[in-house]
Amino acid sequence: NSGEFSWTPNSEQQGSYSVEFTVKDGSGESSRISISIEVQDVPDQPAPPGEGEGGN
Question: Residue 27, by phi and psi: left (phi above 0), alpha (psi -120 to 50) or beta?
Answer without folding.
Answer: alpha
